[in-house]
Write a structure and sequence with these properties.
Layout (H helix, E strand, L loop, with lengths): L1 E6 L35 E9 L12 H12 L3 E9 L5 H5 L9 E5 L3 H6 L8 H10 L2 H6 L10 E6 L2 E5 L11 H5 L4 E3 L4 H10 L3 E2 L11 E2 L4 H12 L4 E3 L4 H8 L4 E4 L4 H8 L3 E4 L3 E4 L2 E4 L3 E9 L6 H11 L2 H11 L15 H12 L2 E2 L10 H12 L8 H16 L2
Parallel strand pairs: 2-3, 2-4, 7-10, 7-11, 15-16
Antiparallel strand pairs: 1-3, 4-15, 5-15, 6-11, 6-12, 8-9, 13-14
């Protein structure tokens, strides 16, 4: 789906509705040529923007993306902008951009786990001085880390966190119950994506697994599942056999919540509206609970990251592209993103405005229990062997009796993958 819009703003344009972030250095960042200067003194600029479908859809009036584009025009009367908006989700940005970085979008939105791939493809621009300063002011340590690469430089302007947590029926579980997975399983039905690497990894990271060293950025350190990996695997094999445990395949959990066969399941803010509709007055959310292995309580530790806006340094209008990417992640844009689309802001100053239980659970998870998912490209070698292992857990091929053997095979596959 493609939407084309041409907007002309003269020198007498209205005062800016939003305060933009300067990007690409103190002058906004680019020496790239523009499309030309009109007789009125405005510079003609063409910007291609990639964003998810949800950001380009509205029941009435303008979508969120169209609203921000109009605000950017008002903030920058020096530009006469031709917009081209294409639907590309954050999860598809890297693979789409790297096909041909030179002709890709000028501005796009991406999941920060793709940062290493985008840098290797030379398809993402470093933030300039002013934009970097603003991102540092807006972001907590975890969010800031999510867009910082091994060179210590910032790429991308975060606008929301990215992790998962737990939705639950508060008539079934108390606030104390949801602190312990074992306590919950004693009282009700709990669904979890035990076959999904992004989810089950939380048991291993909680128990001490390390991904690429203590900083998560040292590829040579590889992935080490840790000394407790065999015991954790046995726990997961037992979990799969628990009569109160429901294997979520990505749809089973929310479906069970809707039909009442599930009392809790784990997901992100993207399904908040469905969870709220399913639970009604009993709607609640909380960070992932702890679990018990050999008498030790261990906190589940999800991966976390951010979704961010970036500009393509190959853009013919790189200065304007950098400014608009920064604008997409500005405080006011994040505020309207939450108001119009329910997208939880990552800006610390907006924490008090994001009052939905899902938003609070996401922010608490990132701030208190999550570990930042590595952004280096070596992480790409994790997912295939991890999916195979996850299928073994889901299909109960991994059993309590063979848990140590199966996780040792998994570790060997991870070691081999890192040598490729």
């Amino acid at each position: 789906m493609k939407i084309n819009m041409k907007k002309v703003i003269g020198l007498a344009a209205a005062v800016a509705m939003l305060t933009p972030l300067a990007a690409c250095g103190s002058d906004g960042g680019s020496n790239a040529a523009s499309n030309g200067t009109s007789a009125s003194g405005t510079t003609e600029v063409a910007l291609k923007v990639w964003a998810p479908q949800a950001d380009q859809t509205a029941e009435s009036g303008d979508s969120w993306l169209a609203t921000v584009e109009k605000s950017f025009e008002k903030a920058h009367p020096e530009y006469k902008i031709t917009w081209t908006n294409d639907v590309v989700g954050e999860d598809d940005a890297a693979k789409t951009v790297k096909q041909d970085a030179a002709s890709a979008a000028d501005v796009y939105m991406f999941g920060n786990d793709q940062l290493g791939t985008l840098i290797e493809s030379k398809a993402i621009g470093q933030l300039g001085t002013d934009a970097e300063k603003r991102v540092k002011e807006q972001s907590d340590a975890a969010t800031l880390q999510s867009v910082t690469f091994t060179d210590g430089k910032l790429y991308g302007v975060p606008y929301t966190g990215n992790t998962w947590f737990m939705y639950y029926n508060k008539s079934k579980f108390s606030a104390d119950d949801v602190k312990s997975l074992d306590a919950m399983l004693a009282k009700g039905k709990v669904a979890f994506q035990i076959g999904g690497p992004w989810y089950y990894t939380s048991f291993y990271t909680g128990a001490g697994a390390k991904f690429f060293g203590s900083d998560g950025m040292t590829a040579s350190e590889g992935i080490k599942l840790g000394d407790k990996a065999a015991d954790v695997t046995k726990y997961l094999a037992d979990l799969a056999n628990n009569p109160n445990f429901v294997v979520d395949d990505g749809t089973t959990g929310i479906a069970g919540l809707q039909n009442g066969s599930v009392d809790a399941y784990f997901d992100g803010t993207w399904n908040a509206s469905k969870a709220k509709a399913a639970l009604g007055d009993n709607y609640a959310a909380a960070p992932a609970p702890s679990f018990t292995v050999n008498g030790e309580s261990i906190q589940m530790t999800p991966f976390s990251g951010s979704k961010a806006a970036a500009y393509n340094p190959n853009s013919k209008n790189a200065k304007a592209a950098a400014q608009f990417a920064a604008f997409l992640g500005s405080t006011e844009s994040q505020k309207s993103h939450y108001t119009m689309s329910g997208v939880t802001p990552s800006d610390k100053s907006l924490a008090s405005t994001a009052t939905d239980p899902a938003s609070k659970a996401q922010m608490d998870t990132i701030a208190n229990i999550a570990v930042t998912q590595p952004t280096i490209s070596a992480m790409n070698n994790f997912w295939d062997p991890a999916t195979t292992f996850g299928n073994g857990l889901k299909n109960k091929d991994v059993t309590p009796s063979n848990a140590a053997e199966k996780v040792a095979e998994f570790q060997a596959q991870l070691d081999a993958a890192q040598k490729k």
